[in-house]
Amino acid sequence: MSDDEKKANEQSANTEAENIKELGVSNVVEQGKNPRGNIQYLPIVGHIEGHMVASPQHKTTKYEHVLPQLVNSSDNVEIDGLLILLNTVGGDVEAGLAISELIAGLGKPTVSLVIGGGHSIGVPLAVASDYSFIAPSATMTIHPIRMSGLVVGAQQTYDYFEKMQQRVLNFIVNNSKISNDRLTELMTDTSKLVQDVGTILIGEEAVKEGLIDEIGGLSQALDKLYIMIETIKKDKADEENS
100 catalytic, yes or no? Predict the structure, then answer.
């Protein structure tokens, strides 16, 4: 191996290590072509950080990291599908919706897997994919939008809250099998949470409500994504041969 090749390999390894450390992702394309399809892994964990920087004590997913990754996944011809791994407490509503919209419009097969939790704005993130899984022990918390800091007690503030709430509701309903009425009922339930409004769904309950498509783990999520990739490849081949 020449010195240039060694240097290139070292640089690639350093980049790979930095990506894993900072973003939690690896460069799947450089790892070699998988005969079943190249999959990009996108972990969304901890607190979804928006325009305001979260506390250093919080594990965060920064939208300025995730959005460029999604654009790259959509544009890179070497990437055939996207697997989203979710374990989030929620966070910034607009940042979460922005990520969700990009996932929903990626243009390539996408599968999400909720492990641990997919709470609050994590719900739109979970349903944004083409197909969704949830681990049997994973939970999802559905509750109305909350806002911290100074809130002006005027009618305009309540109208703004209602519009934001409806944006989240519409996205979830349009990307899952749950109805708007049932989602609103779960979101405003006062009997499930202590000193709070909303509902916690565990594993199979999320599937029964129509939020998530199926109970499963990593193996099932990967198999589903590979099947989706294979179907698209077959359809393209049939079109070329016709």
Answer: no
